[in-house]
Amino acid sequence: MNHSQQQRFNFLYEQHLINLRLQGKRPATIDAYSRAVRRISTYFDKSPDGLTTANLKDYFNSLIQTHSWSTVKIDRNGLQFFYRYTLDKQWEWLSIVKPPQVKRLPDILTPAQISKMISATKKQRYQVFFLTLYSMGLRLSEGLNLTVHDIDSQTMQVHIRDAKGGKDRLVPLPKRTLHALRCHWQTHHHARLIFPGLGNGMNSPMDKGGIQKAIKQVLRDCHINKLVSPHSLRHCFATHLLEGGLDLRSLQVLLGHASLNTTARYTQLTQLKQRDAAVAINQLADKLALDWSLA
């Protein structure tokens, strides 16, 4: 960009950030929507207010080939917001950028595999962290941001603060998890965090990358060939509770889902449902009056 273009971009970008904050967007959304404006401006090396419909088509055609559809969708939403609130324009090309609807079922570990995985985890901080995620159904960020003040041993509840959608919720605290958390806290005595980082990073939570590497390593050690991440432990928590007879509404509250439809997806992951389906399918096949002989 030349000097005047750069000045124009800086002004529009700052207005974009202000509008995002005024709309009450979450920090993660602000980061993603502002990144979308930076990315397209870098691609064309010009201020985004001068882009044409042909430019947008070229940009998204290129983005689809180099990034995931989730990134494409975020950039589409971010630029739509920029056009509407910063440029006061209607983005005419919005309707053509349509990410495909893909719904994949996550891999679920059995309780026996969960036990094996946690037991085989070598470092205590990861061991306790995996137990915490699984036994309370927490998201990765929720577990990392737990503080000493969030744990209430009198009511045996954990206060999950500022979770997805800016919502708080209370989650029952298992006695076994409380004991593990206390033992882990004794190793560092941090004034605020339960899972602080190491060394110079002690005033911040543990590194996400280290957690992800740790779970991959222990899965290899246990010869568990499933696509499992720290977030998978939350899926396992939900699935195992349904198998244990917990009702959907109660599970929705525990997970902090805004919609019961989101929680209902876990019903298709339970072994009971799968077993019922298998029985019904076998009965269907067995009813066929077939006159043949197979060797």
Automatic annotation (TrEMBL):
Domain Core-binding (CB): 7-87
InterPro entries in alphabetical order: CB (IPR044068), DNA_brk_join_enz (IPR011010), Integrase-like_cat_sf (IPR013762), Integrase_catalytic (IPR002104), Integrase_recombinase_N (IPR010998), Integrase_SAM-like_N (IPR004107), Tyrosine_recombinase_XerCD (IPR050090)
PROSITE patterns: CB (PS51900), TYR_RECOMBINASE (PS51898)
Pfam short name (any one): Phage_integrase
Source domain of life: Bacteria
GO MF term set: DNA binding
Keyword match DNA-binding: yes
Residue ranges of domain Tyr recombinase in the record: 104-281
Keywords on record: DNA integration, DNA recombination, DNA-binding
Record flagged with keyword DNA-binding: yes
GO biological process: DNA integration; DNA recombination
Protein family membership: Belongs to the 'phage' integrase family.
Protein name, per record: Integrase
Organism in which the protein naturally occurs: Moritella yayanosii
